[in-house]
Amino acid sequence: MGAGATFSVIGADVTITGDIVASADLHIDGTIEGDIRCASLVQGEGSAIHGAVTAESARLAGTVTGSITARELVILKSARIDGDVHYDALTIEQGAQVDGRFAPNGRQPLKSIDGGIAAAE
Fold first, then answer.
1. Are 71 and 88 a contacting pair, CB within 8 Å?
2. Residue 63 to residue 44: CA distance in whole angstroms
3. For the CA atoms of 77, 79, 85, 86, what is the dihedral angle to 10 degrees?
4. Residue closest to 9 by CA, chosen among 19, 20, 17
5. 4: DSSP letter
6. 3-class state of residue 5 by DSSP
7. Quick count: other Cβ atoms within 10 Å of Cβ 89?
8. Tens digit of pLDDT for each residue in 54-67?
9. Cα of 64 vs its chain's centroid, Å
10. Which sign, positive or negative, has the C-alpha torsion 120, 41, 73, 75?
11. Tell me: the pLDDT tens digits for 8-58?
């Protein structure tokens, strides 16, 4: 596999308690009790995330309880979101439920994947 071809799947029968940091693309069908930071996230319909999500791109179909920060965000009709949403590009299917505030990424400082904030001198 090439460097950009990494893909990790968390199955429907898996529950993870703790934060996940992945440089790979991540597909979640199980339950996550913690924050997620990854390049690309695909969330299955039956999955649940209890924590903050930070990704370059995210396609959400399950339940998320926590804030979401993504450059490209797609919220599918089966999604149930309880938390604030920060985005550059946003698509929401009719029927999706979101309980939180929406704000473009430019309204908050973006943290890099390692947690640092770039400062101009």
1. yes
2. 9
3. -70
4. 20
5. G
6. helix
7. 12
8. 999 999 999 999 99
9. 9
10. negative
11. 999 999 999 999 999 889 999 999 999 999 999 999 999 999 999 999 999
Token pair belonging to 70: 């993504």
- Alpha-carbon gap, residue 83 to 102, rounded angstroms: 9
Q: Are 87 and 73 in contact (CB under 8 A)?
A: yes
Q: Dmax of the chain from CA atoms? A: 49
For the four alpha carbons of 97, 101, 107 and 113, in that order, the dihedral sign comes to negative
H/E element holding 1? Answer: none
The half-sphere exposure of 84 on its side-chain side, counting CA atoms within 13 A, is: 7
